[in-house]
Amino acid sequence: MLPASQRTGASSISSPAWAPSADPSMQRRSGMASANAVERRALMGWLALAAVVAVTIGIAYVWVRLQVSDTGYRLEALHDVIERLEQEHNDLTARASTLDSGTRIEAEAIKRLGMTRAARGQDLVLP
Asked: Which of 3, 29, 112, 116 is buried deepest, with most CB atoms within 10 A?
């Protein structure tokens, strides 16, 4: 069926595009369109925020992995230092025990200082 304006033979004149529409259904549609635009804009904002958060988390993850790797290398180097120091400690302990022996001290006293063994009766025991 034809609209009333076409049935009577009246010419149909359309309103300019900038003029508000007299049809209430068109006003509802344009309101819905602006609501959709607002929703789209809000969704884009949330997506942008999610992207920033994801990138930040990714960078933080890479940074933490680099720190773990660096700490692992430093820990391995410290283990090497500890092993070297333990070996040096063992060597020095062995050397100290040989230097601390009574026979060696006596030999050095005779050789370097010209000392001799005490004769009988020269020993003095202190209380």
From this structure: 29
